[in-house]
Automatic annotation (TrEMBL):
Keyword Membrane annotated: yes
Keywords: c-di-GMP, Cell membrane, Hydrolase, Membrane, Transmembrane, Transmembrane helix
Membrane topology: Multi-pass membrane protein
Name this polypeptide is given: cyclic-guanylate-specific phosphodiesterase
Residues of the full protein shown: 253 to 539 of 539
Highest rank taxon of the organism: Bacteria
Lineage: Bacteria, Pseudomonadati, Pseudomonadota, Betaproteobacteria, Burkholderiales
Localisation per UniProt entry: Cell membrane
Residue span(s) of domain EAL: 24-277
E.C. no: 3.1.4.52
Length: 287
C-alpha cells in the first residue's frame, strides 16, 4: 500500500523538478536572447567622495526589463554563469558602457566607471583584450575604468592572478567587491595586487545597530585592514547620514548607496556630475 504512494510522490517530485529546471533553462535562454535588445541596458550608481560629497565615479549595473517585470541582476547573472555564457554578458556590458559613456568620460577625465566581472571573466585572457580593445576603440584613458570582482570570483578562478596583473598593466584599477562576505584568508587576499576594497553593505548595515554590539568594531577592523594592505576604500549600501558620518570619521574616502543616489540612467548621471563642474563654483571676482 505504501509502495504506490511512494512511487507517486517520486513521480510528482521529479515532474516538479523537471518543470523548474525547464523554467530555469528557459530564463537563461531568454536572457541570452534579450542581451542584444533594448530590454537589457545599464544603470549607473554614483560613487561619491565622502569629504567633498562630489561624485567621482559610478558603478555600472546591468538591468533586464522582461515585459513589465525587472528581473533581479543576481538571478540573471547567476543564470548566465550556470549556462556558461557569462563572458558574453560581460562583453555586452563593456559594449554598452563604452557607448553610454564615451562622450561623457571625455568631458570628465577624473571620473571613472566601475564594471563588474564574474569568476569566469577572471579565468579568461579574453577579458584583458576585450577591455584593451574597448579603450582603443573609444580613445578613453584606462584610468576611466575600474573593474570589480567578488571574493568568490577570486577564489573560484584559475589564472586569476595573471588576469588581474594584466588588467592593471593595461592601466585599469581593480577592486574587490562585497568584501567580507567570502571566506578567503588574509594571506590569500594579500597575495593579489589590488587597488580598491569595497566594504559589503551588510557591514555598513551593522553600523550603530543596537544588538549587533560588534558591528562598529568589525567595520573599523575592515577599514584598518584595507589601510594595512594599502587599498582605497569604498563603502557600499550607505543609506543613512549616521552611517556616512561614522565612515567619514574613520577616514573612509568613498561611498555609494541610496543616500547619495540610486542606480540611474546615463543621462541622469551626466546631469549629476555636471552639477559639480568647476564652472558651477562661484566665480572669483576679478578687478
Ligand atoms: P554589487 O556589484 O555588489 O552591486 C551593488 C548592489 O547593491 C546593486 O544591486 C545596487 O543596486 C545595490 N545597492 C546600492 N546601494 C544600495 C543601498 O543603499 N541600499 C540597498 N538596499 N541596495 C543598494 P543590483 O543592481 O541589484 O545588483 C546586484 C548584484 O548583481 C551586483 O552586486 C553584482 O554582483 C551583480 N551585477 C549587477 N550588474 C552586473 C553586471 O553588469 N555584471 C556582473 N557580472 N554582475 C552584475
Ligand atoms: Mg559591484
Ligand atoms: Mg558590491
Ligand atoms: Mg553584491
Amino acid at each position: 500500500f505504501l509502495l504506490p504512494i511512494g512511487a507517486l510522490f517520486g513521480v510528482v517530485l521529479s515532474a516538479c523538478l523537471w518543470l523548474l529546471s525547464r523554467l530555469y533553462v528557459q530564463k537563461a535562454a531568454d536572457f541570452r536572447y534579450a542581451l542584444q535588445s533594448p530590454q537589457v541596458f545599464m544603470q549607473y550608481q554614483p560613487i561619491v567622495d565622502l569629504r567633498s560629497g562630489r561624485c567621482i565615479g559610478a558603478e555600472a549595473l546591468m538591468r533586464w526589463q522582461r515585459g513589465k517585470r525587472m528581473v533581479p541582476p543576481d538571478h540573471f547573472i547567476a543564470a548566465a554563469e550556470k549556462a556558461g555564457f557569462i563572458e558574453r554578458v560581460t562583453e555586452r556590458v563593456v559594449q554598452l558602457v563604452a557607448r553610454d559613456a564615451a562622450v561623457f568620460l571625455h568631458e570628465h577625465p577624473d571620473f571613472h566607471i566601475s564594471i563588474n566581472l564574474s569568476a569566469a571573466d577572471l579565468s579568461s585572457g579574453r577579458t584583458v583584450s576585450m577591455l584593451a580593445n574597448m579603450l582603443e576603440r573609444t580613445g578613453l584613458p584606462p584610468q576611466s575604468f575600474w573593474v570589480e570582482a567578488t571574493e568568490r570570483g577570486f577564489l573560484e578562478s584559475t589564472d586569476v592572478m595573471q588576469v588581474i596583473d594584466d588588467i592593471r598593466t593595461v592601466g585599469l584599477r581593480v577592486a574587490i567587491d562585497d568584501f567580507g562576505t567570502g571566506y578567503s584568508s588574509l594571506a590569500f587576499l594579500s597575495s593579489f595586487r589590488l587597488d580598491v576594497l569595497k566594504i559589503d553593505k551588510r557591514f555598513v548595515d551593522a553600523i550603530g545597530v543596537a544588538g549587533i554590539g560588534t558591528g562598529d568594531k568589525v567595520v573599523t577592523m575592515v577599514i584598518d585592514l584595507a589601510r594595512t594592505l594599502g587599498l582605497e576604500v569604498v563603502a557600499e549600501g550607505v543609506e543613512t547620514e549616521a552611517q556616512a558620518h561614522f565612515l567619514r570619521e574613520r577616514g573612509v574616502q568613498y561611498a555609494q548607496g541610496w543616500l547619495f543616489g540610486r542606480p540611474q540612467s546615463v543621462d541622469a548621471l551626466r546631469k549629476l556630475v555636471a552639477a559639480w563642474l568647476p564652472s558651477q563654483a562661484p566665480l572669483a571676482t576679478s578687478t
